[in-house]
């Protein structure tokens, strides 16, 4: 009888162990399902917030007087779909008025929600541009014998009746830092520009073309192209740049800079042209933000 009793006890112990393992496995399975559900909700919320930003842009483009119809820092919600819900708003961090500067980028906030999961995006948003000519600036050349718009740091600048690409005159520049032309026109943040300059290098190993913009916060520069030029022949230094900055553009320069040492060049025909100003979220400015507790 003692042996039978011991066997019963052993069976009960084994059964208890099996039951415990089974419960643990069930708990792990439930936890994994819950984790998968939370992850799925978060993915849906993130996609919903991104969709909100794109649909908000489409919604704004359908409104002729959107600056009057949409309020600063006021949430607008779309009808919730079968999967997720989202809302968006525009803010002008400068003065809260969308009409002060029609070209200034605004800040768009977009939030998505799915179940208990929420996701918030914030990015710069480019308003539609409809009043800036595509041909922004073309250097008229040096046929007047002057180069009043050109300047340089530690530079000798002379207009000469030789080595021109177009017309009869060109600008001879002997410099160690920057040579630039002032471009007195409005540059729009987040718009794309074609920046170019024709250069006939006489003695230089490497040159860089840049776009510089003066804002309320000071000068900012964007590299356009860097190259080792072929000597004693005209070649165009050209590229596309998309400047992103806050505030208003006060001034602009197309800049030629030697990478090292002294440069000796003839310069002719500088250009700055607006080629694209797509309204909507600005690539490279998206960042995740905390979602406000209420999404009403």
How would you concisely characterize the structure shown here?
This protein is an alpha+beta fold and 296 residues long. The chain has helices at residues 2-61, 66-69; strands at 76-77, 85-91, 106-114, 117-126, 137-138, 150-152, 155-160, 170-175, 179-182, 192-203, 207-215, 218-227, 235-241, 251-258, 263-276, 280-281, 287-289.
Describe it for me?
This protein is an alpha+beta fold and 296 residues long. Helix content is 22%, strand content 39%. The chain is built from two helices and 17 strands. The chain has helices at 2-61, 66-69; strands at residues 76-77, 85-91, 106-114, 117-126, 137-138, 150-152, 155-160, 170-175, 179-182, 192-203, 207-215, 218-227, 235-241, 251-258, 263-276, 280-281, 287-289. The strands form three sheets. Strands 1, 2, 3, 4, 16 and 17 form a six-stranded antiparallel beta sheet that branches. The longest helix has 60 residues, at 2-61. The protein is elongated and about 110 Å long. The N and C termini lie far apart (72 Å).
